Amino acid sequence: MHAHSRKIAQLFAFALTSLPIVSPIAQAEEIKRTGVPGSTFPISTTVSVPANSRITFFSGTLAEVSNPDAPKGSIEAYGDTKTQTISVLKRLEKLMAAEGLTLGDVVKVNVFMVGDPKLDGKMDFAGLNAAYSQYFGSEAQPNKPVRTALQVAALPMAGGLVEIEATAAKVAPPLKTKK
User: Fold this and answer.
1) Which helix (H) or strand (E) holds 16?
2) Which long-range contacts (CB under 8 A, 24 or more apart) does 15-23 make?
3) Are 123 and 116 contacting, i.e. CB atoms less than 8 angstroms apart?
4) Average pLDDT, stretch 144-155?
5) What is the pLDDT of residue 6?
6) Among the listed ranges 7-11, 60-64, 97-101, which one has the minimum average pLDDT value?
7) Which top CATH class is 29-171?
8) What is the pTM for the complete model shown?
9) CB atoms within 10 A of CB 34
10) Of 17, 28, 72, 132, which is most buried, counting CB atoms within 10 Å of its CB?
Protein backbone atom coordinates (compact mmCIF):
# COMPACT_ATOMS: atom_id res chain seq x y z
CA MET A 1 0.00 0.00 0.00
CA HIS A 2 1.33 3.42 -0.92
CA ALA A 3 1.90 5.93 1.87
CA HIS A 4 -0.84 8.17 0.45
CA SER A 5 -3.39 5.30 0.38
CA ARG A 6 -2.37 4.23 3.88
CA LYS A 7 -2.89 7.78 5.16
CA ILE A 8 -6.39 7.93 3.59
CA ALA A 9 -7.24 4.54 5.14
CA GLN A 10 -6.02 5.77 8.55
CA LEU A 11 -8.09 8.97 8.26
CA PHE A 12 -11.15 6.97 7.25
CA ALA A 13 -10.70 4.56 10.18
CA PHE A 14 -10.26 7.52 12.55
CA ALA A 15 -13.40 9.18 11.19
CA LEU A 16 -15.44 6.01 11.69
CA THR A 17 -14.24 5.53 15.25
CA SER A 18 -14.84 9.20 16.04
CA LEU A 19 -18.51 9.13 15.10
CA PRO A 20 -20.76 9.28 18.14
CA ILE A 21 -22.53 6.02 18.73
CA VAL A 22 -26.12 6.73 19.66
CA SER A 23 -28.52 3.99 20.56
CA PRO A 24 -32.06 3.98 19.12
CA ILE A 25 -33.34 4.70 22.62
CA ALA A 26 -31.31 7.91 22.82
CA GLN A 27 -32.58 8.93 19.37
CA ALA A 28 -36.24 8.49 20.24
CA GLU A 29 -38.00 11.69 19.31
CA GLU A 30 -41.62 12.69 19.14
CA ILE A 31 -43.72 14.16 16.39
CA LYS A 32 -43.80 17.92 16.97
CA ARG A 33 -46.92 19.94 16.12
CA THR A 34 -47.13 23.73 16.18
CA GLY A 35 -50.65 25.10 16.38
CA VAL A 36 -51.94 28.39 15.07
CA PRO A 37 -50.89 30.91 17.77
CA GLY A 38 -53.81 32.15 19.86
CA SER A 39 -56.32 30.04 17.95
CA THR A 40 -58.38 26.91 18.46
CA PHE A 41 -58.54 26.33 14.68
CA PRO A 42 -58.15 22.55 14.17
CA ILE A 43 -54.92 22.62 12.18
CA SER A 44 -51.21 22.93 12.90
CA THR A 45 -49.02 25.39 11.05
CA THR A 46 -46.15 22.88 11.09
CA VAL A 47 -45.66 19.22 11.91
CA SER A 48 -42.16 17.73 12.20
CA VAL A 49 -41.77 13.97 11.89
CA PRO A 50 -38.52 12.45 13.18
CA ALA A 51 -36.52 9.99 11.09
CA ASN A 52 -37.40 7.03 13.31
CA SER A 53 -41.08 7.17 12.27
CA ARG A 54 -43.24 4.94 10.11
CA ILE A 55 -45.12 7.08 7.59
CA THR A 56 -48.31 5.76 5.96
CA PHE A 57 -50.13 7.45 3.08
CA PHE A 58 -53.89 7.06 2.62
CA SER A 59 -55.48 7.62 -0.78
CA GLY A 60 -58.26 10.08 -1.35
CA THR A 61 -61.40 8.77 0.35
CA LEU A 62 -64.99 9.63 -0.50
CA ALA A 63 -68.20 9.43 1.53
CA GLU A 64 -70.50 6.44 1.78
CA VAL A 65 -74.19 6.71 0.95
CA SER A 66 -76.05 8.23 3.89
CA ASN A 67 -79.55 8.15 2.37
CA PRO A 68 -80.18 5.03 0.24
CA ASP A 69 -83.66 6.32 -0.65
CA ALA A 70 -82.25 9.38 -2.43
CA PRO A 71 -81.50 9.29 -6.17
CA LYS A 72 -78.26 7.43 -6.90
CA GLY A 73 -75.29 9.75 -7.47
CA SER A 74 -77.00 12.78 -5.94
CA ILE A 75 -75.81 15.06 -3.17
CA GLU A 76 -78.92 13.98 -1.26
CA ALA A 77 -77.65 10.37 -1.36
CA TYR A 78 -74.36 11.31 0.32
CA GLY A 79 -75.42 14.31 2.39
CA ASP A 80 -74.16 17.84 2.75
CA THR A 81 -70.50 18.74 3.27
CA LYS A 82 -70.63 18.15 7.03
CA THR A 83 -72.29 14.75 6.62
CA GLN A 84 -69.86 13.71 3.90
CA THR A 85 -66.84 14.87 5.89
CA ILE A 86 -67.95 12.82 8.90
CA SER A 87 -68.45 9.79 6.63
CA VAL A 88 -65.01 10.20 5.05
CA LEU A 89 -63.27 10.61 8.41
CA LYS A 90 -65.02 7.51 9.77
CA ARG A 91 -63.84 5.56 6.71
CA LEU A 92 -60.29 6.86 7.18
CA GLU A 93 -60.47 5.93 10.86
CA LYS A 94 -61.23 2.30 9.88
CA LEU A 95 -58.47 2.22 7.26
CA MET A 96 -55.99 3.56 9.81
CA ALA A 97 -57.06 1.07 12.47
CA ALA A 98 -56.21 -1.73 10.02
CA GLU A 99 -52.67 -0.28 9.90
CA GLY A 100 -52.38 0.09 13.69
CA LEU A 101 -52.95 3.84 13.50
CA THR A 102 -55.53 6.35 14.70
CA LEU A 103 -56.61 9.78 13.56
CA GLY A 104 -54.30 11.07 16.29
CA ASP A 105 -51.40 9.85 14.13
CA VAL A 106 -52.43 11.99 11.14
CA VAL A 107 -49.82 14.61 10.30
CA LYS A 108 -51.07 15.90 6.91
CA VAL A 109 -54.52 16.20 5.36
CA ASN A 110 -55.49 17.32 1.87
CA VAL A 111 -59.16 18.14 1.40
CA PHE A 112 -60.66 18.45 -2.07
CA MET A 113 -64.13 19.99 -2.27
CA VAL A 114 -66.50 20.84 -5.08
CA GLY A 115 -68.80 23.80 -4.93
CA ASP A 116 -72.11 23.21 -3.24
CA PRO A 117 -75.05 24.21 -5.48
CA LYS A 118 -76.83 25.48 -2.34
CA LEU A 119 -73.97 27.95 -1.81
CA ASP A 120 -73.91 29.32 -5.36
CA GLY A 121 -71.13 26.91 -6.32
CA LYS A 122 -68.80 27.81 -3.46
CA MET A 123 -67.24 25.16 -1.24
CA ASP A 124 -68.82 24.74 2.18
CA PHE A 125 -65.77 25.52 4.33
CA ALA A 126 -67.95 25.98 7.44
CA GLY A 127 -69.52 22.54 6.93
CA LEU A 128 -66.06 21.00 6.52
CA ASN A 129 -64.78 22.59 9.73
CA ALA A 130 -67.92 21.70 11.71
CA ALA A 131 -67.23 18.01 11.03
CA TYR A 132 -63.42 18.17 10.96
CA SER A 133 -63.19 19.80 14.40
CA GLN A 134 -65.01 16.79 15.89
CA TYR A 135 -62.04 14.61 14.87
CA PHE A 136 -59.01 16.91 15.10
CA GLY A 137 -58.11 19.38 17.82
CA SER A 138 -60.94 18.16 20.02
CA GLU A 139 -60.85 17.20 23.69
CA ALA A 140 -61.11 13.52 22.70
CA GLN A 141 -58.37 13.80 20.04
CA PRO A 142 -56.24 16.95 20.48
CA ASN A 143 -53.66 16.32 17.74
CA LYS A 144 -53.89 18.71 14.81
CA PRO A 145 -52.39 17.88 11.42
CA VAL A 146 -51.34 20.41 8.84
CA ARG A 147 -54.09 20.77 6.26
CA THR A 148 -54.78 22.06 2.80
CA ALA A 149 -58.39 22.56 1.72
CA LEU A 150 -59.20 23.65 -1.79
CA GLN A 151 -62.04 23.74 -4.26
CA VAL A 152 -61.79 21.56 -7.36
CA ALA A 153 -63.94 21.40 -10.49
CA ALA A 154 -65.15 17.85 -9.86
CA LEU A 155 -64.65 14.69 -7.84
CA PRO A 156 -64.69 11.14 -9.25
CA MET A 157 -68.06 10.40 -7.61
CA ALA A 158 -71.33 12.00 -8.68
CA GLY A 159 -72.88 13.64 -5.63
CA GLY A 160 -69.54 13.84 -3.83
CA LEU A 161 -68.70 17.16 -2.22
CA VAL A 162 -65.60 16.11 -0.25
CA GLU A 163 -62.57 13.87 -0.80
CA ILE A 164 -59.85 13.62 1.82
CA GLU A 165 -56.38 12.09 1.62
CA ALA A 166 -54.20 11.75 4.69
CA THR A 167 -50.69 11.00 5.80
CA ALA A 168 -50.11 9.43 9.20
CA ALA A 169 -46.86 8.95 11.10
CA LYS A 170 -45.99 6.99 14.19
CA VAL A 171 -42.66 7.10 15.97
CA ALA A 172 -41.13 3.63 16.04
CA PRO A 173 -40.81 2.21 19.53
CA PRO A 174 -37.25 2.04 20.85
CA LEU A 175 -35.43 -1.21 20.19
CA LYS A 176 -35.22 -3.45 23.23
CA THR A 177 -31.73 -4.12 24.40
CA LYS A 178 -30.67 -7.55 25.61
CA LYS A 179 -29.77 -7.72 29.24
Assistant:
1) helix 3-18
2) 23/175, 23/177
3) yes
4) 97
5) 61
6) 7-11
7) alpha beta
8) 0.80
9) 12
10) 132
